[in-house]
Automatic annotation (TrEMBL):
Keyword list, A-Z: Metal-binding, Zinc, Zinc-finger
One Gene Ontology molecular-function label: zinc ion binding
Keyword Zinc: yes
UniProt source species: Intestinirhabdus alba
GO biological process: positive regulation of secondary metabolite biosynthetic process
Pfam family, one: zf-dskA_traR
Zinc finger (dksA C4-type): 35-59
Zinc finger DksA/TraR C4-type domain segment(s): 33-65
Domain of life: Bacteria
PANTHER family: DNAK SUPPRESSOR PROTEIN, FELS-2 PROPHAGE PROTEIN
Name of the molecule in the record: Zinc finger DksA/TraR C4-type domain-containing protein
InterPro entries per the UniProt record, alphabetical: Znf_DskA_TraR
């Protein structure tokens, strides 16, 4: 019985380790950490949702507005 518990604990620990490594890998692949425009940190949720983004959401909104209206 204790062997089964040990194996189960090992599986849980391994699963947790894999999950942590997967998240770290995802974050490393998830684009810029700081906004190109204002230098503020880009939120993790945005980095994961838009890994190509090099600006934070407020700066991106300003850029899009400028592109739309021309100034
Ligand atoms: Zn910004």
């Amino acid at each position: 019985m204790s062997d089964e518990v040990d194996v189960a604990q090992d599986v849980v620990e391994l699963t947790n380790t894999v999950a942590v490594l997967a998240i770290r890998h995802q974050l490393q692949a998830a684009g810029r950490e700081y906004c190109q425009s204002c230098g503020e940190a880009i939120p993790v949720a945005r980095r994961l949702a838009a890994p190509w983004a090099d600006t934070c959401t407020p700066c991106q909104s300003v850029l899009e507005h400028r592109n739309k209206v021309g100034y």
